[in-house]
Design goal:
This protein has about 60 residues and is an all-alpha fold. Helices cover about 65% and strands about 0% of the residues. The longest helix has 11 residues. The protein is globular. The mean pLDDT is about 95.
C-alpha cells in the first residue's frame, strides 16, 4: 500500500480560503504562496506563525525540519 504524504501547506492554504485570500492575509504575493505550496514549507517563521493561526495547522507541519 502506498503512503502518500499530504501537502500540509496546501491543506493550510485551503483551510484559510485559497492562495489569493491567504496571500492577502499574510501580506505576501499570490506567487509567494504558490512557492510555499510547491516547496511544502513556509520559510519565514513569522509567515508560518500567521498561517498556523489562520488555518489551525500546527506550525511544525508548516516548517518541517
Amino acid at each position: 500500500m502506498f503512503n502518500i504524504r499530504e501537502n500540509q501547506i496546501r491543506k493550510a492554504v485551503d483551510l484559510v480560503g485559497g492562495p489569493t485570500y491567504t496571500s492577502n492575509l499574510c501580506g505576501v504575493s499570490n506567487a509567494c504562496v504558490h512557492k510555499w505550496i510547491k516547496a511544502e514549507r513556509v520559510p519565514n517563521i513569522e509567515r508560518a506563525r500567521k498561517l498556523s493561526e489562520l488555518s489551525g495547522v500546527a506550525i511544525a507541519k508548516l516548517r518541517p525540519v
